[in-house]
Amino acid sequence: MKGTKTFTTFQLTTLVLLRLMIGWQILYEGISKLLIPNWSSAVFLRESQWVLSGFSNWIISHDGVLQVVNFMNIWGLIAIGLGLILGLFTRVAAIAGATLIFVYFLNSPPLLGLEYSLPTEGNCLIFNKTLIEAVGLLILVAFPTSSIMGLDMFISRFKKSKIKKEE
């Protein structure tokens, strides 16, 4: 059929696994920040040395703004992670996650001349694990696995049955 997209079981399984693993990692990051007493993004923002360094310094210099950023960071990570794991509003979660993680990348990219400390695992020149994770989330936007396996599947079925009843 023209326009019909079919995927093999292996393809679907690997895409769902990608969604679950990225979701778990993001959820874990959010929960760990929530559980750390007095956690603040100020430490990370202080190390910003690239295109967002001015904005990062502005956030740090305004305590109220910093508190909002901390709150949004923690609860945004938790909501994105849960959305990905549960397959609920997955496209929104994946887009929000890719955007948030890309902002992390723009604050601390692995580029020559930007010295933070000794190179660490997963922090390779140009393409680090942060950027790879953001691209992984964009892949999940392109392949809506939650409509096949996730709570979005039930929402989609409910909408279809409601439309059929109205016809």
How would you characterize the overall build of this protein?
This protein is mostly helical and 167 residues long. The protein has one domain. The protein is 68% helix and 0% strand. The protein contains 7 helices and no strands. Helix 1 (9-35) runs antiparallel to helix 4 (63-86), helix 1 (9-35) crosses helix 6 (129-142) and helix 5 runs antiparallel to helix 6 (129-142). The chain starts with 8 loop residues before the first helix and ends with a helix. The mean pLDDT is 85.
Provide the fold topology:
Blueprint: H1 9-35, H2 42-46, H3 53-61, H4 63-86, H5 90-107, H6 129-142, H7 151-166
Which structural traits does this protein have?
167 residues; mainly alpha
* Most strands sheet: none
| Strand segment count | 0
**How helix-rich are the residues, as a percent range?**
55-70%
Q: Which spans of ≥5 residues are poorly predicted at pLDDT below 50?
A: none
Can you count the helices? Answer: 7
Strand content: under 5%
- In one word, what is the shape? elongated
Helical/strand content category: mainly alpha
Overall mean pLDDT stands at 85
Number of domains: 1
Integer-rounded radius of gyration: 19 Å
Distance between the termini: 25 Å
**Would you list the SSEs in sequence order as H and E?**
HHHHHHH
